[in-house]
Amino acid sequence: MDPTMSIQTPRRGGVRRFFLAAAALLALAACSDDAPLPVQAPGGAPRMSRASADSTVKRKTIPDQYIVVLDSTVRDVPGFVRGLAKSPKDSVLFVYQYALKGFAARLSAGAVEGLRHNPKIASIIPDEYGTMDQSSQPIWSLDRADQRSLPLNGTFAPNQTGAGVNVYVVDTGIRKTHQEFDGGARVRAGYTSVADGYGTGDCNGHGTHVAATVAGRTYGVAEQATIYPVRISGCNGTVSASAAIAGLDWVRVNHVKPAVVNLSFSWPVRSDIDNAVTSLINAGVVVVTSAGNNNADACSYSPKRVSSIISVGNTDSYDTRAPDSNWGSCVQMFAPGVGIVSAWNGSDTDSRTLTGTSMSSPLVAGIAALYLQNDPTAPVWKVREAVINSSTFGSVADAQGTPNRLAYALPVYLGATVSGPNGIPSAGTYTWEAVTDGGNGSYTYQWTLDNHLWGYTQTLGTGRTQSVYLNPGDGDFTIQVTVTSADQTISSTLYVFNGDTGCGADCTVGTPKVGTSTGAF
Questions:
Q1: Considering only Cβ atoms within 10 Å of each terminal Cβ, which end of the chain, N or C, has fewer?
Q2: What is the C-alpha separation between 18 and 518, in angstroms, rounded?
Q3: From 171, 274, 297, 476, the catalytic residue
Q4: Residue 211 C-alpha from the chain's centroid
Q5: Could you confirm whether 266 is annotated as catalytic?
Q6: Handedness of CA 381, 384, 386, 390 (dihedral sign)
């Protein structure tokens, strides 16, 4: 086995032999002019450029385990390590030859002291546990949201972050200083309709949990979105329709686009709530709401029945509808909502596990934010169609007449390029093809030709290919195709040189002669 890949478990007595052999090097080291090598903190780098270390970072040092870096003059690293002990496999964990020269081993204090006097050793650094740039095992709901089918693969890797998108969490307030919100760096001034002295702070916890599910650094889908707390509920979690409408009213007049609202509350059918939400949607705000936890027809509750809203039911880790999740035609899709871990209001590091459609709704609000980052001027209907059409179809068990769609956080972006000749060497019919991928549903096409010499634009056909009869010398032109899928539109343009002999691959023109694409969802 390659020694750089071997991992051995020490056996009793083997480590002692290694230590004794290492300590025996003290006599040799005594003849050296070098001072004993200090054991360095993980952030330091002796005899090399010193790396800066943030003293506020909590390290998880592994007791009695070290990385020993050898001097660059050592050529035979495995041989050097073997020379330190008769049975190095009993204590050596890894031998490094390429990224650096050295080894990792479990060492006692005495062995470390012996190695410090070896002139061939550059540094001895305590080993430590690291962390991934997200939770080492993402919460299952995020893990589920970026794959089409089970089993879970242990990762969450969205292709957007929500940066530049404004999310309005209409709820119980937010603990803005929580580490999930970067200590408040992404939380803006909001609004409260509850006169209890807490302002937009959260004395309940629900709002903090929801906000972090939308846009938390660890628990959220859109980890760089900007968050606005809109507090409509007090410490006991109850909320009046009047307080809710006041909050929605504030959002209506103060929102900054692109904007998404998450509203994880329900009322029996009320036209005032429905109208307030409709007003937001008409103003260009995407509104996502929980379907409710009554195991009933969601059309019996407001604002679920608003036609342009996104209403979300919840599923468990087996893709089964939660027993109490509302259902029916007023629910557009499902998302994970059982056993969801997210931030809590007890401290800046607090978390709690909750279940309900209040947990599934913010996940979809986060997906809407990802979409809007890519297309910040998209109208509500376009965002709604994209989020719904990008979802996974047919995977939810016991959907109870609800559209069988499960939220998906990796939108399938539409791509298109124009393939065909970029020069007209002789009279004849020339054909170009639209090469497409991504998007959702079937494609439609629209071709146009823009003549640069004569200054006219000609609308052509609507097929995947386009043929045009041309004569040389008629003037350079661009041919463009606009491709539309169920949720996206994109255009691709090819510059064509129309000279006497054609341009070929070596043509130099002022406009790109290769296909370029522009567009969005």
A1: N
A2: 64
A3: 171
A4: 16
A5: no
A6: negative
Instruction: Find out whether 503 and 430 touch, Cβ atoms under 8 Å.
Output: no
Q: 3-state SS of the chain: helix, strand, coil percent to 5?
A: 20, 25, 50
Residue of 206, 264, 375, 487 with catalytic role = 206
pLDDT of amino acid 38: 61
Residues of the chain with pLDDT under 70: 1-62, 85-90, 98-100, 128-138, 141, 146, 411-413, 440, 487, 499-521
Q: Residue 196 CA to chain centroid, in angstroms?
A: 36
**358 is an active site residue:** yes
- Concerning whether 209 is annotated as a catalytic residue, the answer is no
- All structural domains of the chain: 14-129 (3.30.70.80), 158-406 (3.40.50.200), 415-520 (2.60.40)
Q: With CA atoms as reference, report the closest residue to 503 among 476, 480, 468, 484.
A: 476
- Which candidate in 91, 311, 358, 485 is catalytic? 358
Give the H/E segment covering residue 192.
Answer: strand 191-192
* Type and span of the H or E element at 384: helix 380-389
CA distance 371 to 158: 11
The H or E element that residue 141 is part of is helix 140-145
- What is the model's pLDDT at position 92? 86
271-316 per-position pLDDT tens digit: 889 989 999 999 999 999 999 999 999 999 999 999 999 999 999 9
